[in-house]
Structures are given as C-alpha cells and as structure tokens.
C-alpha cells in the first residue's frame, strides 16, 4: 500500500498526554464536585436517530448535524427522480437514519422520556461527553468538543438554583479561577416587556439593553425605537436602564416598576428566593443581577446564569438556566428542570493562561528507575513493584542504554525523580534518588525507600 | 410538533447512573493502575479520514465502518452514471470523507506517525474511548462500545511484556476477579510450522491444535491431514500436541523440537526471558504457556496474551500481543510495540455475575437531608455545606413534601443515611441520623456531625 501522510479531519483534535493530564484534572475536579452534590453520571449513545435530533436546533442546527450514511445498500429505493428533485436535506434524510449528537440536552430529554418509569425524580444527573457540529472550524470552535452538563429535572424548588450556584462556586474555587456569576430571570425580562406594552418584543428589548455598556444610553434608546418600540415605552424603560446598587436594591426597584406584571413579579420572587438562599448559606462567589444577560431566551423560562473569569479575557466559561418544558417535545410535558454547562475548552484556556495547573496535573510518572541491565535491572524491577504497591507511579527505562539517553527521557517526560541502582548500590542494598529539578541526591536502603520515600 | 416515542439506534445503549457508577469504578481502577506503570492518557478524534481507516480491517471491516455524510452539497460532482455504475462502497467513498473509528489501534498508529517528532520514545500510552462498528447487533455485541488499550511503542525489551503482565495482575487483583493469563508467541508457532516443513500453514496448524481439548488427538491429526499436512509432518507434530508439565518444562521441550528454526528459537528466548522476569519479581498471577492461543496471528509478531476469568464462564476479558510493524502502513517502519486491551463490557458482566462491585460502586449520595421547609431547611442547607467541605456526598430533598415521599426517594436511590433536622432538632441544635439499612438512629450536635461523622 502506498505510504500515507496521516492527518485528522479539520476541526477535530488529538489530545496529547500532556494535554490529557490537564483536561482530566479539570474533568475529575468537576466530576467530584458534582458527586458531592448528589448528581449522578449518565451516558447516552454518540448516535441518535435523526428523528430525535432534527428540528430541535432550528433550521441552521439541522444543517450542522453530522449524519451517518446507512449501512449496506443505502441507495436502495432512491430513484433518479428523488435525487434530482430533492433538497440536500431531504435526500440526506433518505440516505441517513442516524446522526451524531449535537448537544447533551436533547439526548437527556430523550432519555428522561424513554426511561421515565425507571427514573427516581427529582432526577439529578451529570453528563460529560463529546458532541459534534459541522460548523466552520475557527479559533476556539471545533467540530468535536466535550460538553459537561449538570441538570436536575422534576423539581421547581429554588434550592436547585442554589445548589448549582454552590457547584459553580466550589468547582472554580478548587480550580483556582476567580469568577463572577451573572444571574437573570426570563420572567423578569418578560415582565419588563409586558409593562412597557411590548410583551412580544422581549428579545429585541433585551438585546438592546445588552449593548448599554458598549454603545451608551442614547444609542440604546435610539436602537429601541428603530426596533419598533414607541418613544413613550422607551421612556418607561429608563429606570430599568439606569439600575444601580446592590442586587437587593436593583430587585426592589424592578419589583416596583413591573408591579403590574404577574409573570414579572413571579420572576422577582424566584430571584429573591435564590438570593435569600445564597445569603443564608454564606456563598462567597460574587453574584451580580444583570438584566442584559440574554443567553438561551428561546428555551429558558426562569433563572439564567453565566460565569465569567475575572482575571482572563474570554467569553463565559459556564452558563445555564431553568427550562419548564424540556421533555414536552418527546411527549412528557410539565417537567421543569434547571441546569448548567461547564465549558471545558475555555476553562482549559483560562487555566493555561493564568498558569493555574498544579504540579500533579503536569506530570504522571514520579520516579524513573535507570536501567543498568543484569542483576541491577532485576533489583530495580523488584523495588518498583513494592513502590507501586505503596501507590507511587514508577517506571523503568526498558532498555539498558546509555545513562544520558535515560536521563534525557526523564527530562523530556518531566519525571521529577530518578532512582539509581548501579552495581555498587545493589551490592550495598542502596538506592540513590536524584531530584531532577536541582540535582540533589539522597541515598536510601530498600526498606527506607519503600517505607519512607516522599516527594520533596 | 407531533408527539414522538423516543428510542435509540439498535446496537447502542444508554448507561443509566447505576450502570455508570459501576462502569466508572472499572475504568477508574484500570486508569489508576496504568498511571502507576507510567502509561499516559491519549485521546484521538471520534472521526478519522476514511483514507486512514479503509483497508486496515480487511474487506469485511471496510463494510463495518460507519461513514459520515459530507456536509453541504454532498451530491455535487456525482453524476447519474456514477450512481448507476458504482458499487455501494465506491459511491460511499464519494459521499463521505470521514468515518467513525473502528478501533483504537489504527488511530494510535496514525497519531504516532503524525506526531513522531514531538513524541518521547518509548511511548507508553493508554486510551479509553468508544469505537463504532456497523455489525449486526446481538447479545454482548454492540455498535458502540468502549475499548481500553494500553501500549508501549518504540521498545523491543521484554520488560514491556513483564509490565503488561503486572498490569493485568494488578487490575484484576484490585477488581477482585481471579484470572488465568495464557501466553503464546507467534515466533514459536512459526518455528513449529517451519520445523515440520509447512511454514506457510502456520495458521492451519495452530487452528487445529486449538481444537485438541474439544475433539481429541485423533480428530486433530485427521484434520491436519485434511488441511494438507503430510502424515510424516503430522507425526513430527505429536510431541508438540502432547506437551505437559510446567511452563519451563514445556518450553525446554519445544526448544529441542524446533531447534532447527532460527525464528522459533528467538520465540523461545523471548518467552523464556518473560518467564525469568515474572519469576524474579514474584508475579502471583497464574500464567500458562498455551500453544493453541491463536488470537491476532495476522498482526502479532511475538508474545500473544489472553486473560480468562476463573470463576465465570465468558470469553477472554483481556488480550493483546507484540506487533513489529504497527506504523509501517503510515510510512514509519521498524517501530515495535506491545499492548493489551481490557474488555470493559465483559469485565462488567463478570463483576455483576460474581457480585464483586464494592459498596462504594453501588451508590453515590451518602446522606440525604430531609426537607421540612422554613428555618429547618435553611439549617440543613448550612450543615450540608459544611459536610460537603469535609468531603461527604450530600443532598437535600428540594421540596418540603411529606416525609414518606422523601424516605422513598432515599430508598430508591439507595442512599444509606438520612439526616433529620426537624423543628425540635433545630431548636436544640441537633441532627438525627438514621441508617437506612437497619433504621438505627443517632443524635449529633452540628459540630459532632461535621467533625466526627463516619459511615458506619
């Protein structure tokens, strides 16, 4: 066979060991926090039936689904007429029954409906798996990437919002990333729109508010009118645009302004309850009520969350919200849920950028035993076996090649200690351990090393 | 939109939390052992270019690849003539550039060649990821399943074989599965075939030997002749078919018989070296030299391994071997490697069948706090926060519903302890903890619970 120059599909990535060790550090941290809060792991298949996926992500989303060609005679039953008179999308639907999952939310909804009789509600699950999108690849945007979702479904209690906020606090505290949590509530946004007489223009209004920091109050007011909001309504909106003070003060002011909107007041009550909980348990994470936070307005129905890193310029590193009808599309209405998703790639970038990965996320093997062959090799193998039983990560260079080559290997692999059992050490029953960082050497007996060795 | 009855593609699986916790227990155990031996994690993309995958798994394998329909105008440039006069395979190659990986070995080989200048050799990597095969689904055979591979590439030392044997020993020791490791060497099989004058019939001879236990010596001899081996050659084979004794005794006998085959003697030397190492370091795993072990004869070139569970009827639960030219197909010849693969699904079945999962692989949340609402709820939330900081996995029922419903939840979720802060407990600063297994209750102050609580 001809020699091939191998490559991988654009938008996909190989994760080298160095990167994997750091990614695993992030995922393990997140997973262990999820566990402390009683969330359970779930995995769904990479492939779903296209009927499960299609129509869930809008027209653009349907195009971004990776579709899997049917096995065997995939052209069977497809006529020339079908080929010439079908759109690409319609023809793809004939050629493909399955697609790769686009996110973890729709498979989760599908799972809940399919297994509703076995599930104990409220159902608290997390899911850390890759998703695939046939997007145009660019910096920070990939065709395969991990999502890391945590949701509780089947409970309307604001305790769930509290728990998610505490999860955010704990995860980023463990990772060492200083963050700000922005919080909003779709019902409040609706209440504002309703109050000024434009309930149907809630999204337009929110989008305009979102630009306040960038373009200033006058430009926002102009844009609101361009978007068809009357001058009178824009005038009514002014107190909202100039909200100041603590979250409590803002919320009180909002409650006054939208006091005529039942939905709006429900949103104020939800938000107020969340702030009560947060204060009661002493959450230290900074939280900011931000009415311009407009993520997921098409599906969130209550709280909306977004997390920003304070010391690094990047988009949000975590976000989510409450949705009241996740499973309705699969025939199970009235299931309220709330969830958040951690952005693993961005978290990785923040931690790399701020140099936050701890030493134990930089390396794996702790001790490399130099291989001198013969009896020294056998002695090393025996000591290594004992050290591994004690929990140390050890290896021996597999060949008795020149010392320099073995030391180079230790350096390139960032192995912090090298253990040496040469002939004289073997005869004396000793092991010399060299710390690679500064070359410091210590001598141990076998039992000293096995019983007392510590990374220093 | 019409109500849908959701399902998943045949041959795929949802892994419920109960199953995931157990699967993670297996994967975490394996991963931690790999780490102790200095193996590093690697992940490659789910999709590879079809040019990377095609032709690597035989004609049948090519048909079992899941192919991904090109995005956008996938019919562009395909004429009616192409459609009518191409085979399914040829047309699929026009419609699809990418496919889902079929195993982890070919992507590993591709990775090594593509990144050879960055890799420190010998390269010790493990990879735990799903693979996909468009096989007909049946009991124990899935279209998506995890593989769990550990390989070292770039070293011919038999220390690598030793390390893999120790990994097998340690993994199954940690999991509590009693196992037998069968070991063979392709060079010995070749030596036998060469010695009796049928070097070209090595696989036929091995397949026949493999039936010895099932059909008996006479039938095997008859089959050998049917397969074109002369009576004289079959006669020469008799000492091989009646090998008895320890591994050392068998190996000595083999060495005498195939003393005219250079390759065969190289195999004996390799096997002998492995047995030396195994004895020197005191491996306790039972190891059996088994000449009928014939897995992977098309690609293995040295040692062949297979692991059987001793107390449970199932196929091999782990296997592997040495290959001398994994990366040649991608243009990097002369890279010898050796690796094994753990069968996660079968290991799961063995552990379920023998009831080997420990308690901490059965449950997640350790303490459920009953929710009585009001001040009691707030007090619970505060105590939970402290307990989580101490590392306990806790949750509170999110609504203050009837006690019975909350206890049912604890039971259905197999949560072992329920913590109760009712009004009287709150006033007295107490917490009552009930052990669900036997209903035993203990009373704690907050600081007693936080500082002293242990699972009992």
Give an overview in words.
Chain A is α+β, with helices and mostly antiparallel strands and 456 residues long. Helix content of chain A is 43%, strand content 18%. Chain A contains 19 helices and 16 strands. The first copy, chain A, has helices spanning 17-36, 50-53, 58-64, 80-85, 88-95, 105-114, 159-175, 186-195, 202-210, 212-215, 217-226, 231-241, 247-257, 262-281, 344-353, 374-389, 403-412, 423-428, 446-452; strands spanning 40-41, 47-49, 67-69, 96-100, 123-132, 144-153, 179-185, 287-289, 303-309, 318-323, 337-342, 367-369, 394-396, 417-420, 430-435, 441-445. In chain A, the strands form 3 sheets. Chain A has an 8-stranded mixed β-sheet. In chain A, strand 15 (430-435) and strand 16 (441-445) form a beta hairpin. In chain A, helix 7 packs across helix 14 (262-281), helix 9 (202-210) runs antiparallel to helix 11 (217-226) and helix 13 (247-257) runs antiparallel to helix 14 (262-281). The longest helix of chain A is centred in the first third of the chain and has 20 residues, at 17-36. The first copy, chain A, is globular and about 95 Å long. The two termini of chain A are 52 Å apart. Chains A and B meet through helix 1, strand 1, strand 2, strand 3 and helix 5 of A and helix 1, strand 1, strand 2, strand 3 and helix 5 of B.
């Amino acid at each position: 066979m001809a020699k091939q120059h191998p490559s991988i599909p654009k938008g996909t990535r190989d994760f080298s060991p160095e990167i994997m060790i750091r990614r695993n550090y992030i995922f393990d941290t997140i997973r262990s926090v999820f566990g402390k809060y009683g969330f359970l792991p779930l995995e769904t298949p990479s492939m779903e039936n296209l009927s499960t996926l299609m129509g869930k992500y809008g027209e653009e989303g349907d195009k971004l689904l990776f579709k899997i060609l049917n096995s065997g005679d995939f052209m069977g039953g497809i006529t020339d007429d079908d080929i010439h008179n079908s759109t690409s999308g319609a023809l793809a639907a004939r050629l493909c029954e399955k697609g790769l999952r686009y996110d973890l939310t729709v498979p989760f909804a599908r799972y809940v409906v399919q297994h509703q009789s076995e599930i104990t509600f409220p159902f608290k699950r997390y899911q850390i798996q890759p998703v695939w999108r046939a997007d145009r690849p660019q910096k920070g945007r990939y065709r395969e990437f991990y999502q890391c979702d945590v949701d509780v479904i089947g409970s309307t209690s604001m305790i769930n919002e509290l728990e998610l906020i505490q999860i955010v606090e704990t995860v980023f505290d463990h990772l060492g990333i200083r963050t700000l949590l922005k919080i909003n509530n779709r019902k409040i946004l609706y209440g504002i729109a309703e109050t000024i007489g434009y309930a149907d223009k809630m999204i337009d209004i929110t989008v305009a508010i979102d630009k306040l920091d960038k373009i200033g109050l006058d430009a926002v007011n102009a844009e609101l009118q361009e978007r068809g909001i009357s001058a009178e309504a824009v005038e009514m909106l002014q107190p909202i645009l100039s909200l100041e003070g603590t979250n409590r003060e803002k919320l009180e002011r909002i409650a006054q302004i939208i006091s005529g909107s039942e939905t709006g007041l429900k949103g104020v009550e939800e938000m107020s309850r969340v702030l009560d909980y947060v204060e009661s348990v002493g959450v230290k994470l900074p939280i900011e009520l931000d009415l311009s936070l407009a993520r997921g307005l098409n599906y969130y129905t209550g709280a909306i969350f977004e997390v920003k890193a304070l010391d690094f310029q990047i988009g949000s590193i975590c976000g989510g919200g409450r949705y009241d009808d996740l499973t309705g599309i699969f025939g199970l209405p009235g299931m309220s849920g709330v969830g958040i998703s951690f952005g693993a790639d961005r978290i990785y970038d923040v931690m790399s950028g701020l140099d936050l990965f701890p030493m134990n996320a930089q390396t794996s093997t702790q001790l490399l035993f130099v291989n001198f062959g013969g009896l020294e090799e056998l002695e090393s193998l025996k000591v290594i076996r004992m050290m591994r039983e004690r929990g140390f990560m050890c290896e021996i260079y597999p060949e008795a090649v020149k010392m320099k080559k073995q030391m180079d290997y230790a350096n390139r692999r960032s192995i912090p200690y090298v253990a040496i059992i040469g002939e004289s050490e073997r005869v004396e029953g000793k092991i010399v351990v060299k710390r690679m960082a500064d070359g410091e050497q210590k001598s141990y007996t076998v039992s000293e090393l096995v019983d007392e060795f510590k990374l220093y």
